[in-house]
Each structure stands twice: as structure tokens, then as C-alpha cells.
């Protein structure tokens, strides 16, 4: 299992790193578009679309991406709609746990998913236009929150964060992930290391106090994104969103926390 996981990670890095660092924006956007389309396919599967339903849903997502580009649709309204979804629907789902058997809820998620994936794609491309270091720093926020939560949870975890959704997550882990982001973010902003980054951008535009709040918001929504996908998987009765990435599960399993973080970060920066 570990060998498979490592091999998959190496292959992914071999593809993603050169394109992120050196490819023109068009090629980078195309790669991320493929990632988003596969994520949409998994979203359709988790919402229990029958037969070719998940493929059709992924096709709709892909067409929406292309049309939004060629029609010059502004990204900010997409960020706003995605932000509203994550601010309202995300916590509502985690607290109330509406089931997929409720057709209105599933229909809403099918529509909202297209908006979420569109906003995510535009946010990644937008971040890449601001610089390689900027887009990598945004990814780093999620990675740090995840790594910090893992080690803090292992060492100190006592109080379950959402036991009915993801029993392994604890409040101590979430706080550890938040601390990791705040400490590294403060150091990066203070030193200007590898600027421009999301850390220097927040401090430059918002000041230190509101930058602290903004990073805290991103960490909170990285947890919401992770738990939201866990809820969908639990209701769908599956462990992973798919088996597309051997040893890692599916695409959604890797980008779930990024789905809310990316558009909300770009929305806060304007």
C-alpha cells in the first residue's frame, strides 16, 4: 500500500510540478481543468447519479469551464457564489446532515457543484497569474493545516471534532493545524520569503491584524471542505471518492479542502 502511494505521488509530482513552475498559463489552466472535470465525475458518483450520470455531469462541468473562459465570465461573482455556498451550505450540512435521499438537497448539490468547481478552477488560474510562489503559498496553507492537524491530533487529540462524520479528527488537531499556518504565515510575511505569497498579500492589503483573521478563516474553511466531502462519502457508503489515484483514493480526496479555500482567499484579496 505504501509503495503504491509513493509511486502515485511521484508520478503526480512529475506531471504537476513542471507544468506549475514552467508551463504557460494556458497549459496550466488546461491541466487544472482536467483535474476539476475528474473531481466533478467523483462528485456525481458521491451524489449517487445512476448509469452514465457521473460522466454526463463531468461533461457539463467541462463545458461550463470552456464556456466561462471563451465568454469571458468574470471570476468574482463565481467566488461570491461559491463563498456563499461554503459559508451557509457547508456548516448547515455538517450540523444538520441532510441525506441524499432528500431530492431537493441532492438537486441543490448538483447545481452548486458546478459553481464550486468553476470557482475553484478560476481561482487556481487567477492565483497562478499572480505568480508561481503565490499559487504554491495558497496550497501551502492547506498542506500546513493538514500536516499540523495530523501531528497535533496524534500527540494531543482528545476531543472529537465531528465524530459522526470523521472520527479521526479532533479539536486539538484543528488548533495545531491553525497554529502551523499562523506561525509559518507570519514568518513568511515578515521576511518576504519567496514573495509574492498569499501571506505577504494579506499583510500588504489588510494589515497584520486582519491578515491574522483572514488566515484563520482559510484554515477554518479547509476543515469545512474536508468534513463536507467526508459527509458525502459517508452517506454514499464509500471510503474514497474513487480509485483514480492508487493509494490516495480519488481527486476529491486530495482537493476537498482546496475547494472552499481557493475562491474565498481570492475573494478576500479582491
UniProtKB/TrEMBL annotation:
Pathway noted in the entry: Phospholipid metabolism; CDP-diacylglycerol biosynthesis; CDP-diacylglycerol from sn-glycerol 3-phosphate: step 3/3; Lipid metabolism
Compartment(s) of residence: Cell membrane
Reaction(s) catalysed (UniProt annotation): a 1,2-diacyl-sn-glycero-3-phosphate + CTP + H(+) = a CDP-1,2-diacyl-sn-glycerol + diphosphate
Membrane association type: Multi-pass membrane protein
Where does the chain cross the membrane?
A: 6-39, 51-71, 107-125, 131-153, 174-199, 211-232
Q: Which GO terms describe its biological process?
A: CDP-diacylglycerol biosynthetic process
In the UniProt record, which is one GO cellular component term?
plasma membrane
Question: What family does the database annotate?
Answer: Belongs to the CDS family.
| PANTHER family linked | PHOSPHATIDATE CYTIDYLYLTRANSFERASE (PTHR46382:SF1)
Protein name, as recorded: Phosphatidate cytidylyltransferase
**Native organism:** Caballeronia zhejiangensis
Highest classification ranks of the organism: Bacteria, Pseudomonadati, Pseudomonadota, Betaproteobacteria, Burkholderiales
Amino acid at each position: 500500500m505504501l509503495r503504491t502511494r509513493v509511486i502515485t505521488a511521484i508520478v503526480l509530482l512529475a506531471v504537476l510540478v513542471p507544468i506549475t513552475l514552467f508551463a504557460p498559463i494556458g497549459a496550466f489552466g488546461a491541466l487544472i481543468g482536467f483535474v476539476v472535470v475528474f473531481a466533478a465525475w467523483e462528485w456525481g458518483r458521491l451524489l449517487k447519479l445512476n448509469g452514465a450520470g457521473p460522466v454526463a455531469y463531468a461533461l457539463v462541468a467541462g463545458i461550463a469551464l470552456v464556456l466561462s473562459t471563451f465568454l469571458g465570465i468574470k471570476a468574482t461573482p463565481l467566488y461570491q457564489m461559491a463563498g456563499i455556498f461554503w459559508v451557509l451550505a457547508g456548516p448547515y450540512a455538517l450540523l444538520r446532515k441532510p441525506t441524499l435521499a432528500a431530492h431537493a438537497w441532492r438537486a441543490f448539490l448538483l447545481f452548486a457543484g458546478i459553481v464550486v468547481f468553476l470557482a475553484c478552477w478560476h481561482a487556481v488560474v487567477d492565483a497562478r497569474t499572480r505568480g508561481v510562489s503565490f499559487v504554491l503559498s495558497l496550497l501551502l496553507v492547506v498542506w500546513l493545516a493538514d500536516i499540523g492537524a495530523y501531528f497535533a491530533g496524534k500527540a494531543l487529540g482528545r476531543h472529537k471534532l465531528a465524530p459522526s462524520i470523521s472520527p479521526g479528527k479532533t479539536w486539538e488537531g484543528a488548533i495545531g493545524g491553525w497554529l502551523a499556518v499562523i506561525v509559518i504565515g507570519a514568518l513568511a510575511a515578515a521576511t518576504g520569503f519567496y514573495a509574492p505569497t498569499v501571506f505577504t498579500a494579506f499583510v500588504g492589503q489588510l494589515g497584520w491584524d486582519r491578515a491574522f483573521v483572514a488566515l484563520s478563516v482559510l484554515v477554518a474553511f479547509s476543515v469545512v471542505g474536508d468534513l463536507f466531502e467526508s459527509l458525502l462519502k459517508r452517506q454514499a457508503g464509500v471510503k474514497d471518492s474513487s480509485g483514480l489515484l492508487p493509494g490516495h483514493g480519488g481527486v476529491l480526496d486530495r482537493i476537498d479542502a482546496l475547494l472552499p479555500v481557493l475562491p474565498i482567499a481570492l475573494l478576500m484579496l479582491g
